[in-house]
Amino acid sequence: MEVAIVILNWNGKNWLEKFLSSVVENSKEAKVFVIDNASTDNSIDYLKNNFPEVEIIINDKNYGFAGGYNEGLKKIKAEVYCLLNSDVEVTPNWISPIINLFKKNPEIAAIQPKIKSYNQKEYFEFAGAAGGLIDNLGYPYCRGRIFDEVEKDTGQYDDEKEIFWASGCSLFIRSEDFWKQNGFDERFFAHQEEIDLCWRLINSGRKIFYTSQSVVYHVGGGTLNKQSTQKTFLNFRNNLTMLLKNLPLSKVFFVIFIRLCLDGIAGLLFWKQLGFAHLWAVVRAHFSFYIQSIGTWKLRQKKTIKQYYHTRYIIISHFILKQKKYD
Predict the structure, then answer these.
(1) CA 5 – CA 311 distance, rounded (Å)
(2) Per-residue pLDDT tens for 127-160?
(3) Residue 315 and residue 327: Cα distance in Å, rounded?
(4) Which residue, among 32, 165, 46, has the nearest Cα to 90 in the 3D structure?
(5) Where are the alpha helices (H) located in the chain, listed in sequence order?
């Protein structure tokens, strides 16, 4: 099975210096590519001088995460893409379990490895942990991470499990499935585009899986940190857009109305905790969602799954019932 490890880079020379050698050393059965989103930090010269075996694809501008991968992957031929963040350290034999799972089950479109924290290696990492799920109102969470609560890895998720979404920081996906869905929705730019893609795949009858037999370590926040108002804007806008695209028709308007109200409450809490700029980011996200809504509605699939969620209301379970762990 031909595998392409594809790293999207934008001014991430420091991450390439730190982690690319681990990828090359532990990925002998795959070809390694770097898609560069018009970096200005000498990333290209560094790659040419230090990693001649890595193939470089240069985009003419910064297309963001979604558009950057869409543009670059057009030039890569492989049966399976592994979309890998530049701030990820991989481990020996991390590819074989993924490929074996693909071969064992042709209904699987995408697979995520176990994602642990690079800085606290005994803990899961926020962006993916042991596989992504979603609640009735469209709030994403993970086995091993609910909102900001991250679990210690004690082997509780050492399994192979069907999940709802696979993290974009280390996403293995069949190229045929990727292009059947026309890749990522480029309007997202960054954040939650992988959840939208996985939801579309599930709506089309495909499956998303997690395996603990493959392990990677993710730094997280390499491009936009938690305090970034742009990250707040993208997360709120993209989540609403994803819901409008993928929810069953019987639920879409009710869920979005509830989410708009809850977003307002979240914005006020952000104002108190992080400053007015984050409240304003939520407001901007809503207006951007409204502007995009007609185009988003046209992208809805004819078939949507009714039982898309695994927990009805994660905010009640977590904040009121004080459930801190997925189990």
Answers:
(1) 33
(2) 999 999 999 999 999 999 999 999 999 999 999 9
(3) 15
(4) 32
(5) 13-25, 43-50, 64-73, 96-104, 175-180, 193-203, 229-246, 249-274, 276-298, 314-315
